[in-house]
Task: inverse folding
């Protein structure tokens, strides 16, 4: 059962990331934001996902130690 739940969580996180990237690209395509701002938003979004991923891995590792 946990494997199935884990897959749904991964699919949900990936879908949310792709949706956020899509919104940023759409904003850029409609000239609502400039190229530099779009790149900055994409880098910040990637950094947040990477940073939270590292925190989750560290939490799971520390939890296993206890």
Result:
């Amino acid at each position: 059962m946990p494997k199935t739940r884990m897959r749904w969580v991964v699919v949900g996180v990936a879908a949310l990331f792709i949706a956020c990237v899509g919104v940023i690209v759409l904003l850029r395509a409609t000239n609502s934001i400039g190229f530099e701002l779009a790149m900055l938003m994409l880098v910040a979004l990637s950094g947040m996902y990477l940073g939270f991923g590292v925190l989750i891995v560290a939490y799971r590792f520390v939890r296993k130690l206890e």
